[in-house]
Structure formats: C-alpha cells, structure tokens
Amino acid sequence: MELENQVVVVTGASSGIGLAIARALVARRARVVFAARTLPKLQAEVERAGEDGGQALAVELDVTSESSVARAVQSVLQRFGRIDVLINDAGNGGTLGLWSAAGPSATRDMFEVHVLGSERMMRAVVPAMREQGGGVIVNFASTVAWVPMPGAAAYSSAKAAVVALSHALRAELARERIDVRVFAPPHTSTDAGKLWPLPLPKIFTPEQVAEQLVRALRGSKPRVIPGGNAMLLLLQRISPRLAAWIMDGIGWRTLARLQA
Question: How many separate domains does the chain show?
C-alpha cells in the first residue's frame, strides 16, 4: 500500500519502537496519530512533524481502558474522518523472572495490555474501517509467541494469544477488506528491551525495526518476522525439540545474567 496521506494510528508511540515507527511514517507523508498515555511528549512530536510539513495528531490513550480507547478513536475520526491503518504496538515484556516467583496478577496484567488492549483497539476501529471499505491492522507479536522462553511465561503466552486472535480475525474480516497482519520485531535496544539482556549476536535499533515495519506495510504478507528470527520458526517446524532447546538456553542464560 502507498503510505502518503494514509491515516495511521500508532499505539505506544511515546517511546521505543512505536515512536520510531510514527516518525518513519511522518517522513513518508502519512497522516500519523501518535497515541500513548504521555500526552505532552506526543504533542512535541506532533509539533516537530508540523515543522517538517507533515500532518500528525497526538491523542492520549490507555489501551487497558475502554473509555480511553473510545475517546482516542473518536478524536481521530473527528480530525481525519477515517482510519486506514492501526498499528497495535502498545506494551512491553516487563521484567524477566520465573513464573513461580511472580505475583498472581502478572499474567493477567500482561494479557490486559497485549491481548485485550489490541482487541479493544480493533473493536474500536473496525466499524470505521468497515464503513470506509477496508483497512489494515498490524498486531505486534514476538518470536516467543511460537517458541516460548523460560523467564517470560506470561509474555510468551500473551503474544501467542495475539497471534491466534490475529489469524482468526484475518479470516473473519477479509470479506470486509480489512487485512489483519502480525509483525514480530527482533530484539531491540529500547528501554523495555534492555530489561531483557538476551545473549544474542545482534540487537536492533528502533529505527531499523521501523524501516522493517514500513516495508511490511507496503507489502501484503500476513506475517512478517524480520531480523533472522524467522529461521528459528523454520527450525521449529523441522525439529521442535531443537528449537525449544535453543530458546530454553537463551532464557536460562539471560536469567543467570540478571542474577549475577
């Protein structure tokens, strides 16, 4: 799809990957909605976009709140009259640790943001997309959705749920020309990513991931896993036991680093 003049809502746009994506889309002359809980920072980004000749809007958004989601989407529709693309990036992986050592709300909180937060946003934007004749939804996943990692039980299961939800809705909404996709970024040097000191040969920058997302939007693949992680998923199909062994090793080594 061509991005110029497309209305794109980016959740989690105040920092990290979300912010880099929103900036990359502004550079492509999309009409970008910076959506997150920290409104002052978003407004500064909108002012910068305006100085560069772009069109942008800042909206306060908490994806765990039905009323906040409704207000944010209504603000977008009042300003631009449509929503062409929704990028569900809000959320983070939290702090790594054993499931048995986490509090009773840890898994519920992770699902509240990643799964139900994405679902709230989709329920809010799909009516507008349906009325305008179509749209694109990109839900963020992770490699650990397919190959779970010890130390990240709640995050792995939440992202697995996002993948399942996305695949089911892709089939359901296709007849209405609403394309639901999954994007699973590689490990990235954000503040949230630094809480996961994974022993990997390469850590990507938010800007590199943003460029991959822009490329994915211009294409039509239902699932994009940049950065080499797709090889692990391919290995899982060939030898699930070996893929699990690799991810188990990454998880245990990371937990050891955190305890050192």
Answer: 1
Assess whether 58 carries a catalytic annotation.
no
- Considering the domain boundaries, does residue 226 fall inside one? yes
Where in the sequence is the domain holding 98, given as residue range(s)? 7-259
What CATH number did the domain enclosing 172 receive?
Answer: 3.40.50.720
Q: Give pLDDT tens digits along the chain (260 positions).
A: 899 999 999 999 999 999 999 999 999 999 999 999 999 999 999 998 887 778 999 999 999 999 999 999 999 999 999 999 999 999 989 889 999 999 989 999 999 999 999 999 999 999 999 999 999 999 999 999 999 999 999 999 999 999 999 999 999 999 999 999 999 999 999 988 998 999 998 999 999 999 999 999 999 999 999 988 889 999 999 999 999 999 999 999 999 999 87
DSSP type of residue 15: S
Q: What's this model's pTM, rounded to 2 decimal places?
A: 0.95
In a domain, 2, yes or no: no
Please indicate, yes or no, if residue 35 is contained in any of the structural domains. yes
Contact between 260 and 197 (Cβ < 8 Å): no
Through-space distance between the first and last CA atoms of the chain, rounded to whole angstroms: 47
Let me know how long the chain is: 260
- Determine, yes or no, domain membership for 1: no
**Which tokens belong to 209?**
């991931």
Indicate which residue of 155, 183, 196, 204 is catalytic.
Answer: 155
